[in-house]
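[job 4471] stage=fold_predict status=RUNNING
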Amino acid sequence: SPNEPGYKELYQIPDNWSEIERQIILEHNKVRQNPQSYIPLMQNWLEQFESDYIVRNGVAPRVNLVTQEGKSAVLEAMEFLREQTPLGPLAPSEGLAKAATDHAQDQGQTGETGHDGSDGSDPQQRMKRYGLPYLGGENIAYGPNTAQQVVMQLIIDDGVRDRGHRINIFKPEFQVAGVSCAEHPTFRTICVINYAQGYLESPDAQVPDLTFKVNNQSGFDVTEIYLAPATKPDWGNNRLDSPLAHRYIGTFTSSGLIEGTQPVCNFNIREILATGQEKVAKKVNLCEKVYTLSVP
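[job 4471] inference complete, writing structure tokens
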């Protein structure tokens, strides 16, 4: 609940969101700000297992849930939560919610699963219909009918080897999210959650500056760094105010480099080392947030 330690409700959720959609955002923020708050919920979930792999009434009253990994996935998730540090809350995004609605309604009609729409769209393409995303991601929950169950099962991530849904929930870069739930012909419910580091709600708005880090592992000080969008040949001005020492990390922005309304991730990077050596890296995806400069 909002009264639990470490929990703050900082954002006004749009009135047109359904109650479960509102609660899914609130539960995200509860567990991001206080990860340990979900451990008792998972303990209760463990107690509902009637065998190593079957959860009694796990889908609905008198409908059991057959898991792939069983109790071990729940125990692993609880251990993860014990070690997870608190993160900032997610702000609700109307544009991301509209993108989520497109997919939830689509699969609610087709009965399909997965991240590809019946029109061939992927999550990024759907997000771009209503704005400009930076570093987007998507989670989908099939079956759970309460917000706590949606978030808990995405964190447990039963049967998902890389725990990609859990990673999305606890990705520190993500700052905004949108939710949409619908009926599903096979799994009864579908809830789609779209995330982004930043999102401009209007496609006509100016694209925001990109912030990223350069990790100097070259063995030398870097005296000059130049950036240019991969589609432009002009290096412009040196972005360093002072040398970047070996094993130090510098933070930079794309201020003044991006024109128009389309996000740009791929940049060319030119570095000058204290030795006079020069290195040029082309088409570096700076939306991944960290670029490591190694020995030329």
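[job 4471] summary: The mean pLDDT is 85.
[job 4471] exit 0
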